[in-house]
Fold this sequence. Notes:
The structure holds 3 protein chains of 3 kinds. Chain A is mainly alpha-helical. Chain A contains 16 helices and 4 strands. The longest helix of chain A has 40 residues, at 183-222. Chain A is elongated. Chain B has helices spanning 2-9, 11-36, 42-61, 66-90, 95-118, 130-133, 141-160, 162-170, 172-177, 182-204, 209-221, 227-251, 257-275, 281-309, 320-327, 334-342, 358-372; strands at residues 318-319, 346-348, 353-356. The longest helix of chain B is centred in the last third of the chain and has 29 residues, at 281-309. By secondary structure, chain C is an alpha/beta fold. In chain C, strands 6-7-8-3-9-10 form a 6-stranded mixed β-sheet, sandwiched between helices. A 4-stranded antiparallel β-sheet of chain C has the order 2-1-4-5, covered by helices on one side. Chains in contact: A-B, A-C, B-C. Chains B and C meet through α14 of B and loops of C.
Amino acid sequence: MTGFQLEIQLTAIIVAAACALPGTFLVLRRMAMMSDAISHAVLPGIVVAFFLTGNLSSPLLIVGGTATGLLTVVLVEAMRRTRLVREDAAIGLVFPALFSIGVILIARFAGDVHLDIDAVLLGELAFVPFDRWVVAGVDLGPVGLYATGVVGAITGLFIALFYKELKLATFDAALCAMLGFMPTMLHYALMGLVSATAVVAFDAVGAILVIALMVGPPAAAYLLTDHLHRMIGLSIGLGATAAVAGYWVAHVLDASIAGSMASIIGLEFALVFAFAPHQGLFSSWHRRRLQRWEFARKMLVIHLLQHEGRPEAVRECRVDHLQDHLQWEREFAGHLIRQSELQGLITREGVYLHLTAKGRSIAQEAMVS
Amino acid sequence: MDFITALLEDYTLRTVALGTALLGAVSGALGSFAVLRRQSLLGDAISHAALPGIGLAFLITGSKYPLILMIGAALTGWLATAAVMVVTSRSRIKYDSALGLVLSVFFGLGLVVLTFIQKLPDARQAGLDAFLFGQAASLIERDVVTMAFLGGVALLLLLVLWKEFKLLSFDLEFAQSLFLPVRALDLMLTTLLVMAIVIGLQTVGVVLMSALIVAPAAAARQWTDRLGIMVALSMIIGAGAGVAGSLLSTESSRLPTGPTIVLCVTAVMVVSLMVSPARGILWCRLRRRHRNRQLRQEALLLDLYALAGQHRDRFHAHDESVLIIMRATRASVRKPLTALAERGWVRSSGLAKWSLTQAGVEESQRLMRERAS
Amino acid sequence: MGYAVEVRDLTVAYRQKPVLWDIDLKVPRGVLNAIVGPNGAGKTTLMKAILGLIKPAAGQVLLNGAPYSRHSVRVGYVPQRGSVDWDFPTNVLDVTLMGLYGRIGWMRRVGRKERKLALQALEQVGMQDYAQRQISQLSGGQQQRVFLARALVQDAEIYFMDEPLQGVDATTERAIITLLRQLRAQGKTVMVVHHDLQTVTSYFDNVLLLNVRRIASGPVEEVFTEENLRLTYGGRVAFVQASG
Lengths: 369, 373, 244
């Protein structure tokens, strides 16, 4: 591995972590699409700041981008409040307009400088090592690494300090307001950090991967844990893994790094979606199956209990009667009876079924609850 | 005038104008349903998800024939919608997260495919890049014919199933109770939305196509409460903005088509939000101001009446400061009092003192009766 | 004697439509007060407006005789169960602790003392064994009891509860009513949005009949009459007559 490769991967890991932090809260607040809106809407701010400074690595670009990112949040909220359009439509109206302004500004006035549209959208992680921070002749490393590191650290600090408040604002904004924690302020602070993160990540990975990194790992983590702090940790882990894996996949296939990273995130999510221990497709399928068996077994013992020792028992407690009366498939009923026999709940005497003591107590318990 | 003559004579311009009018109308029509069904952002996911489809269609067939690329785009766009539906119904992941995830992952896959294509030895891939931001100038007759065919089919189906779609968008459960095949209709309407988006991709681009779904419909909604009129208006707005934007961008090489169209349609939307007669922000604000003023005046009149009840003389004059305390506000009472005086209900009796007139007493009693009922 | 809740001329409007119109209300201290009215009557809106969560178009609210602010009076709020996302990744104890966040203050962390208070509150609602349970695994009644525990730890003087008895099992309903009576015995005032007309007289001391306007309010035996109910529900109250 060359130094450049190391720097690229390090930057990718930091970007992934910086995105996962606010992304967790976006996902839980049902505002995942704000990452789409903000990551596009930072563009005009960046472009204007670039025109003012003439320098692509000026910190003012972060300020400008954050400003238009927050402007999006304000505009969406203002439009929603008029009740003329719904929130989803408001998002869909605001960010394309702001992004279009950015694209047109670039096309008209910056066509020949190093700020082209494709890079904006797609990012080029591979170029990160070429923009270096040199102080008094000493090479301190790529600028992008520092920019993402600083913004990520600020985001991390903010979330650590206001963890309790953010949790409350996310879970129950009304209580948050009543207790005097200003959920609106917290909301704007969080959105400001999302914007700043989008700006620094933008340069490295482009607008669309910002969305993938902010939404994908937290969404996967959401299916893996029921603890907020673990969800944040898992998101960072999943994001960083995708960053490194995506880099090497891109390296081997000679394809877009941002694209590979997003694809790996998709793969991660698909795996979690299918195989997560409690929330996954397979485990919930398995659980439903177990529940079905469990329920059927209960029905069987209750049925037997109700007719036990009565004149109709001869008719009711027969194997073939179960198929008609409880409308079970022949195979299902047979399987169920064999299982219940094995578990010592019933005994079988020709075509007649009898409850055991254990089966009787289970039936009685089931009927009480 | 020159421009119009040019439009009529210039073959390229005419093709471009026709094509964009078409896509604007189709996306305006289907967008209306998307907006009403709260699927405004689904369009964004579909259009981004079309990118890998375009790339793969080209990679597999080696053809740049529009119908083939559009079929590829439609397939992955449709797949993305299905993915969103499966993820939201089979896990606790919410709709917005599913959209964001599917949108970015599909787009990422698209990027990988595009970088593959760029490495192909022959240079035919040039032009696929146009799908990112769109290029109206690249429209030729063949494209417009394909768009017209697909758009025509979509609009025809919309017309045939109009009643059913209307019910589906308005009241899903009621539709179910009528034994309408709700799932099939939902699938159908979503498929039509995918078609509308796919038609516009070459001109507007995957990144901004969603705006053409949302904005015309949102603008049209402000002018009417009837679905038929809304869809018609939305089609007109979409077509108009499409033509205006594409012609502007053909005029100048430094105006990319997609963004220009988006800004045109956004402008229409902003104007609609502001000035539409029934719901527009400006009118509402004026009306609310008028109503608040009237409420303030009535409240003051009743306060004076209540104060007067404490005196034997009903026309006893009271100081402004007393009224301010009663209202528990710091706002001035001078202006509403002056307005009441102009209507002859109160009279100023010297320095900051006011009293009721006979007409004012009667008006107060009328208001009291009205409030009691 | 001052009032726990006093509302004057409260008007709330969405767009041009008034949702609450000119509400006057006086609730004495130490009573259980039901808020009753048909759907869309503005019951939740009234609570939110009293708590300052919605800005009213006009009017004034006094809690314990003073305009409500965070420091003037301790207020506990139990929102509707459906107002939060129960898939949120957290457990029962944590949700209960949220009631103490106001006392803990900005940026400071939850300590051992708070944990003890929260566990006590959970015990009061019979949920002490569920402290570490994920909230997504709770039944409707259990969710409601966790919300009550969260309000209890606030140690408020006035409680506002939005449909706490909606869709809960009989055990939870009994537990909640016992709890409300305990609160009353401690001199607390409780405002409850209630939907079940049959139980109003047996559960509550006071009632507010609301349908955009205040129809009537005061002691149950005076106010909860057939005539007033008809005014509130517009004639659709035949079913209360049976219960007398």
